Amino acid sequence: MICMAVLWIQAQPDQVNQMSALPTRKTERRLAALLVATLGLAAPQAAIVPTFTAGIAAQVDDKLILDSEVRLRMSNGEGVLRRAYTNSPPELQQKLEALGRETLERLIDRALILSAFEQAGWQLDPKAVQKDLDDLITTNYGDTNVFLKVLTEQELAVNSMRSSKLRNIPDSTAEQIEQYYHKHQEDFWSEESVELLLITISKPAGKNATVESQHKFAEEIRTRIAAGGDFASEAKSQSEGGHVAEGGYYGWMQRSNLNKPIADAAFAMKPGDTSGVIEVADNFFILRVTGQRPGAFKPLAEVRDDIRRTLQAAQRSGVMNHWMKELRANAFIRYFGLLSADAVRSQNRVREIEIKHVGTGSVADALVRAKLCVKEGEPLTQAGVDRDIRILYGTGDFYNIRLTGELVEGGTKVTYIVQEKPVLTDLNFTGNKKYNNRELLKKLSSKSGERLDERKLFEDARQIQKMYEAGHQQPTVKYVPNIDERTGRGSVTFEITERPE
What we know:
Elements: H1 25-39, E1 52-60, E2 63-66, H2 67-84, H3 89-119, H4 126-140, H5 146-166, H6 174-183, E3 189-190, E4 193-202, H7 211-226, H8 231-238, E5 249-254, H9 260-266, E6 278-280, E7 283-293, E8 296-297, H10 300-329, E9 333-335, E10 350-357, H11 365-371, H12 382-394, E11 398-408, E12 411-420, E13 423-430, H13 437-441, H14 454-470, E14 476-484, E15 489-497
């Protein structure tokens, strides 16, 4: 077997597809319990902290989004949050969880767009791919590799599909722009403003300075200006604040942009006036006002282009949201849940590989091991771990797969926690009045006695919906699996919400 990397680096949803179902809470708890048991976490005093966890975050049709991809995409935002909430661990955890969910939804959208690109039969310009790839390598990397090429192709594909959807959006009419202006006129109110120059003297400054000496120094500057001295020259030579090179010139400032004591003084002055020395916090200030503008609404001619851009952005957003809603409505989306532990960072060698089964299992450990790219005695990498998840899930034998690692003497022990697809025992219906169970069963491709396949169940739910639509109804149909991990069996209920014709 050749361990080839298959990369799907997948972007805000309107809704979760009504015909897809989340994994049951029971399944989540069972997997979590097995993780605890596997890692020896039941006894706090002997807790083993995993060096990494890995698994599937979501499935979009035939594409998998892995936890490692979500972590990679949220890494920059995570760093910002950790710095911002370093003293508030509970709030940090909430923010990180929200960031993880948002990132996953964006990756799901990205996967849907890539699928649309493939289904449309579009082709990328090889020269465009190579140009973007060269730019990416020059900026961030040292050499060409498969990962970067796939990443570049996917980015171009996503951008091409988005551009195609936004290509024919009409420009806003003069009437639309005028209507927007009158409806949102408060957005175009311009506050009163003053043209302001400022000299700043800190208190105290230097080894021998005191608050009193600095105040006296500021008064001396004020006296020289009052006697005819040039304000800008004094600012350039004496001010310790900003805009020194411009002679303390701050330009037109609105009241809301100024500290209250400064604003109160500035807006009480007339053009040409110079203030006295004003003390605010750790500084003394001298102000010069050279102009005033009253508050007023900006004329339509001044904001017409801004309104046009605002309306265009709203149109683009509406088109994209409608398109993504359509893509989600027709796609199989399954959520597995995000893991909170770290990704693979160590380059330790694999010391041991263990296979653990959730509940009963008919797939022999030897068959699982034969599929693995991660090998005992070889370096452990995130790429190898991700390949194994994709390969094992791609066999069609497994309902869920998780990996954990722990440091042991001589390297890392990697544990593969696998849950096989349960046997489907029952197919049930609730809420159906227009059609009886027998009529609905005829529409299903899923059969009792076979392995539970959520993608087939999704298609079955769509067939039921089409059956109702043919009768001029728009029902909500979703499937809900109920899995007993202990016995490896599961039933499914199709929940139907009928609506009047």
